[in-house]
Design goal:
Layout: E1 7-9, H1 18-30, E2 35-37, H2 45-59, E3 67-72, H3 74-80, H4 85-95, E4 100-105, H5 110-126, E5 129-135, H6 139-144, E6 154-158, H7 166-174, E7 178-182, H8 190-193, H9 196-205, H10 209-219, E8 222-226, H11 231-238, H12 247-254, H13 265-268
Parallel strand pairs: 1-2, 1-8, 2-3, 3-4, 4-5, 5-6, 6-7, 7-8
The structure holds NADP nicotinamide-adenine-dinucleotide phosphate.
Length: 272
């Protein structure tokens, strides 16, 4: 079992209320998924912290076994002119932790990017944050990191079989940067749900379509950040560590790429 290669997201498409979220997080933890993704804009830092504290006490899980990732939103970069440490303190308070496993810039807003990244590097060196990174980057952003003395530990990008992000992934694998895929199932878009390729590969391995897609991420070196409002589905998606895709099947799934983008960057990150 290598369930630390799956991250449960509490943002888009996730339950946000205490009861709904606790049910799915319980299902995740019972399946040994111990990594979680949040952000201030999701409004789930506090409820996630509370639920993890309760489940850790109940199931005797130590803090070191958990991986808790949050983000700095664009408005926070702008409001503080990149001096974001006060927001990290308030995130730690909300999450009920004394360090954050991973902190990501949510959107690489050009005006505040450099100062924010400098703050991130300081926080990492001080130990308040264990890993630092950036979401929503393309190859051109990654190349710009050559000018800094610290490259990201992690990037998080929209990625699924309809959007394979080959250039970014090759760059990251070459430079030792971990890649996380958000919207890894593309919300089970009908082009995936109806794909003959995915159906055949899934049948061959005795797995569901969703399990096959999540396994494709892992077998291409990427960590998926998925979500569901259904405890049963969370358990199903944890069951992907007893098989591996063949190189041929990986190529077939990757051939579904059409560079499809669900989230409009220009709306969320003006100037990107
Ligand atoms: N950094 C960023 O800018 C950014 C942006 C977006 C998302 N994220 C992160 O990524 C996480 C996941 O994002 P996402 O929700 O867009 O992606 P996703 O995990 O690809 O999609 C989840 C959605 O797909 C549905 N689904 C899953 N399996 C299904 C199946 N077999 N049949 C039908 N529907 C199915 C789920 O419905 P059910 O609830 O019914 O299971 C849910 O509505 C977020 O929670 C967040 O943590 C980050």
């Amino acid at each position: 079992m290598d369930t630390n290669r799956l991250i449960f997201g509490t943002g888009v498409s996730s339950s946000k209320d205490y009861d709904g979220l606790k049910q799915v997080i319980r299902a995740a933890v019972e399946s040994r998924i111990l990594a979680f993704d949040t952000a201030p804009s999701y409004g789930t830092e506090e409820v996630l912290g509370r639920i993890l504290k309760e489940l850790s006490d109940e199931m005797v899980i130590d803090r070191e076994s958990l991986f808790i990732q949050t983000k700095i939103d664009a408005w926070q970069m702008q409001e503080s002119d990149g001096n974001i440490s006060k927001y990290v303190e308030s995130a730690m308070k909300k999450l009920g932790v004394d360090y954050i496993d991973s902190l990501l810039i949510h959107w690489p807003v050009p005006e505040y990017f450099n100062t924010t990244w400098e703050s991130f590097v300081k926080l990492r060196r001080a130990g308040a944050v264990r890993k630092i990174g950036v979401c929503n980057v393309r190859l051109r952003h990654l190349k710009q990191f050559a000018a800094f003395d610290y490259v990201p530990d992690i990037i998080q990008i929209e990625r699924n079989p309809l959007r394979t992000c080959g250039k970014e992934i090759d760059f990251c694998l070459e430079h030792g940067i971990e890649v996380q895929a958000y919207s890894p199932l593309c919300k089970m878009d009908e082009r995936l749900r109806d794909s003959g390729i995915l159906k055949k590969v899934s049948q061959k391995n005795g797995k569901s379509l969703g399990q096959t897609v999540l396994r494709w991420h892992i077998d291409t070196g990427v960590t998926p950040v998925f979500t569901s409002t259904k405890p049963q589905r969370v358990g199903e998606y944890a069951g992907i560590f007893d098989f591996k895709l063949s190189d041929e099947d990986i190529c077939k799934i990757s051939s579904l790429n059409i560079d499809y983008k669900m989230y409009l960057e220009s709306m969320l990150c003006p100037g990107l």
